[in-house]
Amino acid sequence: MPMVKKIVRWSLGVLSALMILVAALHFLLPWMVNTPAIKEKVAAYIDRTLGGQTHIVELRPHLLPMPGITLKGIQLSLPGRAEMRADLLSVYPGILPLFTGRLQVGAVRVHAPMIELRAPTASGATAPSFDVATVTEPAVVQSVLRRLPENVRVSIDDGQVTVAYEGQSLIQIQAIEAMLQTDGRQIALELEGQSAGIGDFYLQAALDSASMNGSARVDLADVSVSAWETALRPGSRELLPDAVIDLHVTAQVLKWQTVKLAFNGSAPQMTFRGQNDVDGRGLLVEGNLHLSRQALSVTLDRLQATQPQLNANASLTWPWEPTQTAPLQLTVQARDSDVTALRAMLQKLIGGHAGPQTLMRVIQGGTLVHMDLNTAGDSVAALGRMANLHISGAAADAHIVVPEVDLDLTEVSGDWQFSDGVLTARNAVAQLGASRGGNGTLTLGLQKDNRFIDLEVDISADLAQLPPILKKLIKQPAVRGELERITNAQGTADGHLSLSGPFKAMNVTVTARNISLSAAYDRLPFPVALQGDTVTFTRDSIAFNGIAAQMKNSTIEHLKGHIKWHPTRQIAVDNLAARLALDQLYPWLTAFPGLKAALADIDDATGRLTLRQVRLHGLLNRPAQWQFEASGSMQTVTLSSARLPGPLTVVKGRFTLTPEQFSLADARLHLLDGTLEGSATVGSYRSAQPTVRLTAKGIIGARGAGHLQDLLQVPSELRVRAPISVQRLSLSRDAQDETRMEGDFKLPGDLNIATVLSLRPEEVNLRDLTITDRASRAQMTLQHDLGNSIWRFSYNGRLLSATLVKLWRDERMAAGDITGDITGFLDFEHPEKSIVKGQLEGHDIVVPDTLLGTVLIPHIVIEGLEDTLSIQRLAFVLDQQYFLAEGQAFFKGEQARLKMSLSSDDMDLALLKQRFDSIMKARGADAGDRGRPFDLAADIDIHVNRLSYQQFVWEPMHATLTLKEGAAEMTVRKASLCGISTMGSLRWTPETMSIELLPKAENQTLQYAEGCLIGGDSTERIEGTYAIDGRLTTHGTDAEALTRNLQGMVHFDAVDGRVFNAGEVGLFTNLLSFLHVNNLIKRDLPNLSERDYQFNRIRLDLRFQGGRAELQEAQIDSHGLNMVGEGDIDLLNRRLNLSVLVSPLTTLDSIIRYIPLVGNILKGTLVAIPVGVRGPLANPRVTPLSPKAVGQRLLGIMERTLKTPFRLIEPILPSQEERQEQ
Questions:
Q1: What is the SS3 assignment for 774?
Q2: What stretch of H or E contains 1157?
Q3: I want to staple 907 with a disulfide (CB 3.0 to 4.6 A). Which of 72, 673, 944, 1110 is the partner?
Q4: What is the band of 148 on the pLDDT scale with cuts at 50, 70, 90?
Q5: How far is Cα 1113 from Cα 1100, in angstroms, rounded to an integer?
Q6: Where a domain ends, among 893, 910, 936?
Q7: CB pairs under 8 A, 24+ apart, for 1095-1099?
Q8: Please, what is the angle between helix 466-473 and helix 477-484, to 10°?
């Protein structure tokens, strides 16, 4: 018993000691172990084992409640690959091995680890390199598994894993709970977690390390495809369908050599992304994957969507070992599927490869009844190549688009296949716009180097769609431009559409039959209705046969022809008959640029044209060069033009038209009040010199005759009476530009006129003009050779006023008569060859529109004596001035000479100068255009009782006028201007006139000279005895220039005379009135309107220059009053600017009482009062001047005049009240 107690006590003691020891170790070990040296050794061991960097905050071993070691605040970093941070990592040894003396890890527990896995960078610089094949070898895997400790359990609670790429977080998994357990043979893993956007997942896997057989199960719920794609492929432009899916996968691994997967998934909603997003619904996917060392095999047993409708299955095999055939094989079957969904699936499955994209651009919609797709290649990219795709099936309501030719076919049904890059459809029906096609075949080459189309289809066409269809198929800009002009097309036709050839050079043929069409074409004024047999469109032309057209009241029948626009734009009409309403045809014709200019003068056209036959061909854009042949008739065709005085109506007529000639036969024309019947032919009408041949007869009324004479610019005096009966008219113009007219005309009063006239560019030839009636008969000829300045003329017969009154509308022209027999030949270049024979006498002859104006010849008698023309009497009236001339004209030598006398009672030199200038200019212009003028020299002795020029009058004037070499000179032998002898000379040419005057008089009586010389409205008159001497010259073209250029000196001296005024104003009148009204002189000054102002002498020295007369010195000596002056006279503006000193012959005590102070100082001395005279010549204004304004020259003149000292005084004018008092 004591032994037992002892044993118990020792046991309890040992146990207590052990417990104390354990407790002491439990508390002492952390202090002893958690040293920097031990932590560094532990961290270094981990670094060597894992190849990273480890940092431990605290190392805490513990014995209770279970022995183990806990690492607090551990951080593990694998540079560039991973980093882990955990609050606690506890390692527990196995209990049983401890009793056997072995230390073995039994359990590892990690609490709240945060693991960051870093994906390798794009360059892969930090990613470790390893051989996948080596790693996946079973032996390698087994060696790795053998390193795992046996009977170890690793648990993770509340973990977090982040996958990062280039510093950005891609995937973050939270709330991770994991359990890994090994028993030496089996390895079991259970893992679950969740992540925002990625969904919840659960993984259960087991692997037998001996047999290397295993299994796995993966459940994913609410997985966002877009989130996974963004995480796994950041920045990718090819997005997977956006959907939230549930996915279940079971897997089996056999000997680590073969992997078998079975998967199924579903997505209630989805969005397929592409050029345009497509929403989907109800996606179901079921399939298997088999991966072995020999091949990869993927089978989709079920690929189904409810929207868009899709029912398909597919299989893919990919052997790893090289084979004789393409290793990668893909098969797809679809049925009752929406083509839109199929396009989206294939584009996502195969990617952006050219082949499928091209095919998908062609097949854009519809329903696949069934489809089989087979393709093979040595890579995934090769599956989409055109040459590898083989597709066949049947389609319904398909939508086929060929962008290269802008062909859009809808509701396509039929069998089709796609092989070697060629799409073929047979037994197809389709809708082309509003037109239905059937019995069609379509072949499309879609490979890059072999793109073509071959389409044959019968069409029942809605012609409203024809223009847009043709615009799509035809690429020529000119044709497309014309098709743009067609609007509101309606109608039907049967036909055939054929497209063939490469896209860039496609042949298009559209044949339409049984056509019924109405449309608007903006080149035509009204809509057009077409009926006909056949119209054929090709890429290069349009041909028509048996077409009838109607445009309002115009119709075309039996139209046959074609229009080509390649290689050249041509038009051809082989047959055409038409009935055309010109009110519709004319606007259409003016729309053509080639015809618009030719028809520009025609404002409007109405009536009907009937075309019996038309043939035409030529270049489409050059209508002026078309070759054509047309014939037909006109019915009441009316043309309106600004060039016509009124509408021209062709009542009837037959015509033919070719490019060379237009002819009109059996025509009747109405214009104004006239009617003509006849025919006409115009040849070469499109050239600059057409030929014309016309015959006609009829009536030209008064209005028509007036317009014709307006057109010919016939002077009003020479206009004939109407109506004119055209008995016969023949008018022609040949290619040599000769116009010939022959005709017989009858005027009222039984007056007959027959004429033959020919016109050429250098000749006017009136071969015959015969005028006859019961009283008169006269025959005339006139020929003018314009190039050689030759005239030939003749007159024989008698024309009395009784006959002329029937001819001329102007009664003045009908007042005279002409009798004689005379012929003449005038050679202006060689006057010595001129000959005139015979006599001519006339009375009261009016010669209109000459260079001198209208000339009335009361009487003329001339006689031709071969080289001499005797003017026995020539009385004529020009500008209401009567002249009488006699003389002779000699045609001898190189110059014709006229010697005659001319007399007149009254001659206006200004009018004659104007006439002479006109003659000289006309002769000069004629000489420039027609050669040398008729060189005429003349000596004319002139006797005129009164000659006037502007405001100056000479009475009388005797002179000799000489005409020679384009100039006129007149030497004045006798002339009196205002009583002053003004002999001299005048010379004028078309450019200027020059005058020299020599005024000269001694002891002549001066009477009324002032107003006459002034030439104005002054009413002052001066009488006395005067002398004048001087010389004046000037030149110019008019009175202003002659006045401006007048220069010279004139000395004037008048004595013992008087000045009086017939009116109220004038130079002397205004001056004396100023002195009297202002009481500047006490003498009784005369009122010139009532009595005279007597003077002893008036002396003037005048210098003319620059349009002014400078009054160098003026002295007026009168009884009791002396005046001197200087200044100038503006001859152009007729104004005075004079300074005058007035000196009364009295002493200062008799000067104005208003300046007594001055009178006391200057008593006994003569004085002078300065005044200014300015303003119009006829009525100047007088004002006082300051003595300071008087020049020395004027003072000198006064001293010489008074011959005694004098003083200047400044007048002080009285106020208005003082003037009234005086």
A1: coil
A2: helix 1156-1161
A3: 944
A4: low
A5: 6
A6: 893
A7: 1095/1024, 1095/1054, 1095/1057, 1095/1058, 1095/1059, 1096/1055, 1096/1056, 1097/1053, 1097/1054, 1097/1055, 1097/1056, 1098/1022, 1098/1024, 1098/1052, 1098/1053, 1098/1054, 1098/1055, 1098/1057, 1099/1052, 1099/1053, 1099/1054
A8: 160
pLDDT, tens digit (0-9, with 9 covering 90-100), for 440-458: 888 888 777 778 888 888 8
> Would you say residue 760 lies in a domain?
yes
Cα–Cα dist 71/84, whole Å: 13
Q: Quote the domain boundaries for residue 1070.
A: 992-1212
What pLDDT digit, counting tens, does each position of 599-623 carry? Answer: 777 888 888 888 888 888 888 778 7
**Structural tokens at position 889:** 């004209």
3-state SS, residue 660:
coil
- In sequence order, the β-bridge partners of residue 547 are 532, 559
- In this structure, are 777 and 740 located in the same domain? no
Report the distance separating Cα 889 and Cα 900, nearest Å: 8
Are 740 and 870 in the same domain?
Answer: no
Q: Do 683 and 758 fall within a single domain?
A: no
The amino acid present at 1001, given as its one-letter code, is A
1159 and 1019 in one domain? Answer: yes
- Please report which confidence band the pLDDT of residue 1000 belongs to, taking 50, 70 and 90 as the band edges: confident
pLDDT of residue 1090: 65
Could you tell me the pLDDT band of residue 987, with boundaries at 50, 70 and 90?
confident
Contacts of residues 704-707 at CB distance under 8 Å and 24 or more positions apart, as own/partner, are 704/645, 704/671, 704/672, 704/673, 704/674, 705/674, 707/645, 707/672
Same domain flag for 678 and 742: yes
Nearest to 278 by CA among 310, 301, 251, 253: 310
Predicted confidence (pLDDT) at residue 104 exceeds the cutoff of 80:
no
Question: Which residue's structure tokens are 């206009």?
Answer: 719
SS3 for 857-923 is EEEEEEEEEECEEEEEEEEEEECCEEEEEEEEEEEECCEEEEEEEEEEEEEEHHHHHHHHHHHHHHH
Residue 1041 token pair: 């220039």
Domain assignment present for residue 801? The answer is yes
**3-state SS, residue 327:** coil
Residue 1156's pLDDT is 44
pLDDT digits (tens, 9 = 90+) for 574-601: 888 888 888 877 877 777 666 677 677 7
1191 shares its domain with 1044: yes
CA–CA–CA angle 223, 226, 231 (5° rounding)? 90
Per the structure, the count of domains in the chain is 3
Stated as kind and residue range, the H or E segment containing 357 is helix 354-362
Of 840, 873, 893, the last residue of a domain is 893
341-371: pLDDT as tens digits: 666 656 555 554 444 556 667 777 778 778 8
Instruction: Report the pLDDT averaged over residues 650-663.
Output: 89
- pLDDT tens profile 843-875: 988 877 655 667 888 999 999 988 888 999 999
Q: How confident is the model at residue 1204 (pLDDT cuts 50, 70, 90)?
A: low
Q: Are residues 732 and 765 in the same domain?
A: no
Given this model, what pLDDT does residue 488 score? 83
Whether the CB-CB separation of 442 and 424 falls below 8 Å is answered with yes
Kindly report whether the global pTM for this prediction surpasses the value 0.85.
Answer: no
Residue 1163: pLDDT band (50, 70, 90) is very low
| The pair of three-digit structure tokens given for residue 615, joined into one six-digit string | 């043939």
Residue 711: CB atoms within 10 Å: 10
Q: Is 1043 inside any structural domain?
A: yes
Amino acid (1-letter code) at residue 1017: D
Burial degree of 576 (CB within 10 A; 0-12, 13-18, 19+): buried
Percentage of the residues of the chain whose pLDDT score is greater than 90: 9
For residue 254, being part of any structural domain is answered with no
- Same-domain check for residues 733 and 783: no
Amino acid, res. 979: G
Contacts 24+ apart (CB under 8 A), 652-661: 655/631, 656/629, 656/630, 656/631, 657/628, 657/629, 657/630, 657/631, 658/628, 658/629, 658/630, 659/626, 659/627, 659/628, 659/686, 660/684, 661/685
